[in-house]
Amino acid sequence: EVQLVESGGGLVQIAGSLRLSCAASGFTFGTYWMNWVRQRPGVGLEWVASIVPSGKITNYADSVKGRFTISRDNAKNTLYLQMDSLKTEDTATYYCSTGSFRGQGTQVTVSS
Question: pLDDT tens digits for 38-58?
Fold first, then answer.
């Protein structure tokens, strides 16, 4: 059974940082593309970033480029999202995903 468990969310001030983690199990993590997506209040699901199985290639939405960094540790079956220079518009529930699978999410709230 595929399981994706996000953690690391919380309340942070504008310009602050957070590091999200996603523990994966039930599949061969190191062979799958992984993604972070988010859902902001009143907005549909939004793609944030992707990373190839090796970790060598990453892609970002324009809204987070230069501020967020996606990475992975295949030995630990864990996906990360380092979020810096946070803005109020980054407030959302963040999910890790692969294919049609998505975790339960972790809430990030950026306050002014």
Answer: 999 889 999 999 999 999 999
